[in-house]
Amino acid sequence: MSAAQDRNGLPVLPVLPEGDSTPPERGDAARNRALLLDAARRLVDERGAEAVTTDDIAAAAGVGKGTLFRRFGSRAGLMIVLLDEDEKALQQAFLFGPPPLGPEAPPLQRLLAYGRERLKFVDSHHALLSDVGRDLQMRFNAPATLHQSHVRLLLESAGTTGDLDAQATALLALLDADYVHHQLHDRGRTLAELGDAWETVARKLCGS
Amino acid sequence: MSAAQDRNGLPVLPVLPEGDSTPPERGDAARNRALLLDAARRLVDERGAEAVTTDDIAAAAGVGKGTLFRRFGSRAGLMIVLLDEDEKALQQAFLFGPPPLGPEAPPLQRLLAYGRERLKFVDSHHALLSDVGRDLQMRFNAPATLHQSHVRLLLESAGTTGDLDAQATALLALLDADYVHHQLHDRGRTLAELGDAWETVARKLCGS
User: Fold this and answer.
1) Mutate which of B129, B169, B194 to disrupt the A interface (most A C-beta within 10 Å)?
2) Interatomic CA distance for residues B159 and B201, integer angstroms
3) Which of A117, A168, B2, B185 would bridge with A152, disulfide CB 3.0–4.6 Å?
4) Is A5 helix (H, G, I), strand (E, B) or coil?
5) Where are the domains of chain A?
């Protein structure tokens, strides 16, 4: 692979595009968009995505519901933007952030930190990730492939032998939104226990 | 665990019920049911499930289409019965059959054989398993839990340390119907390669 490499010799992954090709929003539109996203994020954190309606979001943002639909098209559209922004923040952290997630830590330590961090993310974003996971186009494309690539690279850098794609897939099954939700809510497991399980499997695959 | 054990000390798993509580079918009805299932199995083997219609099945079985709907309710009903019969046959093989699948082989050998056998099954039953996998009720209940239990028991008998449920989940991700289909049809992998990958992960988890 001849892509740019970070200081640990890991190829640097392509970053998700920062915007799209639509023209820049006017000031009011951009401000309303930010107000709506902030309100939605706060409500989802408080109640879980399932319990948040477009009425709630518009009221909390102090804008009309028509504005929400003009900016995001639908409730689903807003939730996808919200997920995408949070995905980008986590992505920045694991590609460029401080250790143990970022590139200054050794690969196995990064892999263990990634699992525990992603478990928290998956728990707080369950409803939307579960929807997205049922869509096969999404499942085998970005940003799912970005996680696959990241885990694969860390396994490789940690000296893992054998089929790296398969081992990344096996490991990532422990971060599947529905699996995590089922373990936490139906089986009484905790995020710490699921993080320990991630560590067990990651260490065995790396041979450490 | 105090359940009955086989000769290798493995608890014997409960077997799926052989029938349901409906009264026995009359001779004609039972014969038509068998003819329709045989025809459907043959056509699915030849063309894949997606390309088989109820017209095809009824014609190949030499019965009217009305008979098909009386016996199975719908095309989906027939396909579920077909999958269930084939699941039972594979289940018999891995619970009670000859080695390397069955109980006379050592646990790791059984686990490796199970992976390769199940990959073939998943490939030939892709369309229906994929439908069923999207249904969460099915995903976390029998027969999915039966596979989880079987793999967990074999890991345990092979001396695997750490969280057995998580490791069984990670391993079974390599047999997921959509994953296998994607690897075979979009990535150009072969069943033999996917079987080798299963073996790599299984051996690492068992520490062998």
Assistant:
1) B169
2) 15
3) A168
4) strand
5) 25-73, 76-206
Residues B95-133: tens digit of each pLDDT: 999 999 999 999 999 999 999 999 999 998 887 777 665
Minimum distance, in Å, between the CA of residue A203 and any CA atom of chain B: 10
Q: What is the distance between the alpha carbons of residues B123 and B39, in angstroms, rounded to a whole number?
A: 19
Q: Which amino acid is at A42?
A: R
Preceding peptide of B14 cis, ω within 30°: no
If you count residue pairs, one on A and one on B, with CB atoms under 8 Å apart, how many are there? 74
Nearest alpha-carbon partner for A93 in A108, A114, A111: A114
Chosen from A135, A148, A155, A169 to mutate, greatest number of chain B CBs within 10 A? A169
Q: B133 to chain A, minimum CA–CA distance in Å?
A: 9
**B124-127: long-range contacts at Cβ-Cβ below 8 A with a sequence spacing of 24 or more?**
B124/B44, B124/B45, B125/B49, B125/B83, B125/B86, B125/B177, B126/B48, B126/B49, B126/B177, B126/B180, B126/B181, B127/B48, B127/B49, B127/B50, B127/B79
Model pLDDT for residues B58-104, shown as the tens digit of each residue: 999 999 999 999 999 988 888 888 888 888 999 999 999 999 999 99
- Per residue in A75-118, pLDDT (tens digit) is 888 888 888 888 899 999 999 999 999 999 999 999 999 999 99
Residue B207's CB is within 10 A of a number of other CB atoms, namely 12
CATH number for B25-73: choose from 1.10.10.60, 3.60.15.10, 3.30.930.10, 1.10.101.10: 1.10.10.60
Among partner residues B161, B163, B200, which is closest to A196 by beta-carbon distance? Answer: B163
